[in-house]
Amino acid sequence: MTNWTLVYNDFVPSQEGLREVLCALGNGYFCSRGAAPEAKADNVHYPGTYVAGGYNRLITKLGDHEVANEDLVNLPNWLCLTFRPEGGDWFNPQAGGLLAYHQELDLKRGVLTRRVRFRDKADRETTLTSRHLVHMGNHHLAALEMSLTAENWSGPVLVQSALDGNVINAGVERYRELSSSHLEPMETGEVGADWIYLRVQTNLSHIQVAQAARTQIFRNGEPLIVARNKIEEEGYVADELSFDLVRGETVRIEKIVSLYTSRDHGISECGLAAREAILRVECFDAIFNTHVQAWARLWRRCDIVLEPAGREQLILRLHIFHLLQTTSPNILDLDVGVPARGLHGEAYRGHIFWDELFILPFLTLRLPDVTRTLLLYRFRRLNEARWNAVQAGCRGAMFPWQSGSDGQEESQLVHLNPRSGHWIEDNSSLQKHVNAAIVYNVWQYVQVTMDMDFLSLYGAEMILEIARFWASAASYNPKLERYEILRVMGPDEYHDRYPDAEEAGLNNNAYTNLMAVWVLCRALDVLDILDEERRQSLCERLDLGAEEIDHWEDVSRKMRLVIDDDGIISQFEGYEDLDEFDWEGYRQKYGDIHRLDRILEAEGDTPNCYKVSKQADVLMLMYLFSSEELSSLFERLGYSFEHETISKNVDYYMKRTTQGSTLSRIVHSWVLARSDRARSWKLFCEALESDIADIQGGTTSEGIHLGAMAGTVDIIQRAYTGLEMRETTLHFNPCLPDELKSVRQKIGYRGHWLDIEVTQDHLTISAAKSWASPVEIGVRDEVHILAQSESITVQLR
Amino acid sequence: MTNWTLVYNDFVPSQEGLREVLCALGNGYFCSRGAAPEAKADNVHYPGTYVAGGYNRLITKLGDHEVANEDLVNLPNWLCLTFRPEGGDWFNPQAGGLLAYHQELDLKRGVLTRRVRFRDKADRETTLTSRHLVHMGNHHLAALEMSLTAENWSGPVLVQSALDGNVINAGVERYRELSSSHLEPMETGEVGADWIYLRVQTNLSHIQVAQAARTQIFRNGEPLIVARNKIEEEGYVADELSFDLVRGETVRIEKIVSLYTSRDHGISECGLAAREAILRVECFDAIFNTHVQAWARLWRRCDIVLEPAGREQLILRLHIFHLLQTTSPNILDLDVGVPARGLHGEAYRGHIFWDELFILPFLTLRLPDVTRTLLLYRFRRLNEARWNAVQAGCRGAMFPWQSGSDGQEESQLVHLNPRSGHWIEDNSSLQKHVNAAIVYNVWQYVQVTMDMDFLSLYGAEMILEIARFWASAASYNPKLERYEILRVMGPDEYHDRYPDAEEAGLNNNAYTNLMAVWVLCRALDVLDILDEERRQSLCERLDLGAEEIDHWEDVSRKMRLVIDDDGIISQFEGYEDLDEFDWEGYRQKYGDIHRLDRILEAEGDTPNCYKVSKQADVLMLMYLFSSEELSSLFERLGYSFEHETISKNVDYYMKRTTQGSTLSRIVHSWVLARSDRARSWKLFCEALESDIADIQGGTTSEGIHLGAMAGTVDIIQRAYTGLEMRETTLHFNPCLPDELKSVRQKIGYRGHWLDIEVTQDHLTISAAKSWASPVEIGVRDEVHILAQSESITVQLR
Prior knowledge:
The structure is a homodimer. By secondary structure, chain A is of the alpha+beta class. In chain A, strands 1, 5, 6, 7, 8, 10, 11, 12, 13 and 16 form a 10-stranded antiparallel sheet that branches. In chain A, strands 17-24-25-26-29 form a 5-stranded antiparallel sheet. In chain A, strand 2 and strand 3 form a beta hairpin. In chain A, helix 10 (368-379) packs across helix 13 (452-473). Chain A is globular and about 90 Å long. Mean pLDDT of chain A is 87; it is low at 9-16 and 18-77.
């Protein structure tokens, strides 16, 4: 296990998480094209419980999802490429005995290698080695190479290479009673004389997916002339190749697959495009080489190098790898969002939540155009968000908590508590704070890139419409002379109503209210920044006048926060009156209490009664804002903000949080980065293990947690370097944990590419050759001007 | 007829062109979504003669194309909304007699109004007034309002409002024997209880198109309760409404249509999207108002105001109107190019040629993001252009002369000479110069916007790959120590081979060769401009090394031009040896000789033998480049460039050109703008009449000539103002024709919006409030610095 390679061999139980995270390779791009567009309710079995998904599974047959989600040795049809000796059974390593198994994910090159040696019922021993990839440089291409060695036998062999449109979604156990079939067969056939072709369509959204496959067999580098036979069934087409294998001999099978969908640009029809592509395609080695080069270019920009380079380095790279599988430059011309579980599993059915808040900061500083694409995904759904606001009796745009292809609210109305077997009312759509996350991301993107074109055309409109929503959602309380936002939920999903309240929702959630203020401030900024022509056009189109802008100003100065005399910011109005929870008692009784909601519900109780949180809520504020920014927001509202406000609240809330979400450790590690470096590092290391060790015990197999993965990367990227945008200055205030000697990374900032090295002693920033104007770099309290091809080093102690 | 309104009434023969140009309203957006994606060969009747097109016609039933292409009074089914008195025939104004007809296109508001008064067989007199629009601010919406007055009768009336998927392409007479049906019915049905719905798909590209329609009838502003009946046939659905009409009474019928295609973003399925949209839609008046506002915003940015404001002003606005119908901001999220005939007619089947060269300069300075979108259309087809180059034995990317959805070469192999009835070999795909046009547009866009993001991600790759193509297409002639480009065609399509040559193509076309040099220079610039990270990535990906770059440098300094002792640049090598043409004789014999190719072919002769051109070829160089730029290109090549080179060549070639293309007058007017202002103005005025007077006698009904329309606008915009980008400076050198007192326009330049007023005496440039840094403005030989919110005035004499 180097810093670049994850290896899984034998069947060591402690490697459960590893087994899961390995399996993402090759799903990357193709799934991204399935996940978002098809993530739309198309079937209702239980009231409010939607089944979506779509052709992920079709695609994952190209990858090896199927394998990962089943027992590892259950490999009846490995990527739809299988074989049998004549008269024998199709490849089934369990039949006679599995002699060796080795699986290796090369993060640097994006290649998964497997080696299996097995014995069949007739005592034939065979070794199979496969390498496969989905091309990082050409997202229409996947390739699989399989080497087959007859160790102790000779004879005729039949290879079957298929395209299977009959795959279903079955990766999440608790969804299996729901509808799982999302594809309709459209067409199967041949391409030229030899290659095969399949076209299917998703059954609700009617997205067509076409694949063509070329299968060739080589002996000693020469193509083998083989007898070919086609098998066509509804939604299934296969190429059967027969040839003779001699004892000790190895043949190499290449399966190259082209894939297009009806949503692709620059084509006439996806079936035609897939067929033409397969006729033009190169051999496996050539495809392999350009794929590896594409990964090398990505890593040059996206790697973060730690010293010492131990397990943390490897897992950090695994997380970056998953980020790039889901959100590489391959999405630039697609209408896709970031699903909460990346492109790895089926949980949440590919739906989009607020995870961008944790994911985009990494992309914005390295692949800003990927961020732009993901923000455009939101912009394209702005009209639906407007409609959503109207339905809620508000103005502006209210993006839904959980959404799919058409941007409608898809949050479930009930969810299952597997512990009690009960279906519970689900009010998660009250998490209006997702709207603030969108504005935060737009703002960060514009700060980093100064992409005024994006701001003018798209960003400003989103910011203004979301600001308008918050202003309309805030009601004035004349007694307090404050605005209030009522009946919402914060990020902490353990609280969705007051104890014994009929109606769901909580009032004056601190995170929501303060984020709304911040959004209103940014909206006021935007109106200042835009050029006159665009501002006028936009205001006309949105019918936005001076009176409304004055109202925003007012709301942004009089929003209510509930703060007690000790300076503890109430998570929501009334939180202070809830009972303290018996942490010790429950820990003793249940051991793992990170899903306390399920435990309490099964007992007939509810976390609504207690000061107990699933995840960071108030502390999200300290995660997103520096102390200076928080202080100025409090000042704007006329609340006092003391030097100790942050540490007091961190202390108060960390004690009362179960870490029921993988995101929680990220936030806690972050907020402790300066005040308690040792504890911050410990939480960081725990967060690193979220998926690779499957610390929630089973959720990784349903899909990796992309927000948490990105969050760990962002802790290194921004929290430990103290990287922060303050108007025209890029600030650094490094504070490495003792465990790190140095961190090296490259970021893009306003047209510059900056190499940044942080050690315990110094900070060095080098700007590469560029067309951009010099930028201001702040280090602690000093501001430096850095021009292209220049470098600065600052001693830190 | 004001400066904003085109009126057509009665049947004045001289208004033939006007009749045609009127009919574009309402086709704009919808067609744009048909034209480019579906413009792909799907049927071959005659060898090499492709039939494409698609759902234009479906859409035009929403607009009024159908009407315009047929006899004006033949209105059996007006936008699929018709009526009959019970027992009478469906609306047919010819049956009893047309009493009055009035048709009016309001360019400012984008509304077409028609008034018809007619008598039926039973002597019932009825007046119909209609207004219709396709919404400029919401491209998913079209609306039609029809007022119906029973002048001298009373009785029950039946209204039929339909969605018709059985429309065909029949707008071009000579295509009518080819396949004309391009839609397959998919689904018809109801939305809710009352509204109707249709889904069809194009038969090759499988693009689905869904429409839903709401039809309501109002009397005195109140909705009328009517009996409704649905008619469903394959590919056709209609709503039949019956009610009573009283003599002298007017009822108002509103038909609102929503339209989505399977290529739209942010939806699940287009049918679902269309159905949901129609349920949320507002009333006609509200739709009308927001539509008019959207046009007002566009005009604020795109209008060019002339003084005096005569017929030229009106036609100029008509041309801008057509430009915006085809390329408004509604295309920003679509994968579309600019068809040569706009979105008005079916000629060339929506294919894309080089017309962008004439069209984009207007857009780049006003709606730069529209240009970006149109350039991305090319970028998305870069891989196909690479394949095209490989097929031709070249390297890099060779974009095709004529292309559709998937970017493959679609040029016909034969074409019909209607004069002789012969099918003639067509070598137009030898016009490789389209590749230079693409680079020219990319470069202009980057110069105007400084959009380095676009350059880095897309523009640079196109420029480098096209440069690579030109370098590989140039062969070294060691005897001359020059590079040559052999066997191509220039813009002048009258010459496609040497007299008596077996093989088609001409050698060393001056336009092609010099443009290749210019492209290579820009490629070398780009490598200098890009930041180090992007440059390295790009060069790695394209496998572009120092040796190849040196070769480009070499080719860019040693390209061959054939120039005679008098300084006449040969259109191609050997042009100088062709016979002079008997202009006088042929003019006497045939009168109109602008299509001399057809005349000569019918005589068994060919223009290949003569010094006669269809359109500007060498003079394109003077059109695209200033004298300074040309001089520096000649110098780079080691050819002498005298002060008189331009005037000599203009004089030489203008005499030998038939203006067989509408683009030719544009170029000639441009190159004379300084040396012969009177003649330039005359040519400009003739070019203005191209479509409105249908000066080619019948081609306007097949589609307006968008390149020529844009060209006239560009003459005002750039030629007469002397507007030119020179590295970091925006230059002006105004030279208005005597006929113009002043020109006012607004342009966008590097983040500024500049109001520009040019008169005979002075130039005033005012920069609006903006975020952008000051820019350099050159006026004649002086450079001024202009900051936001500032203004400069320069006296011109």
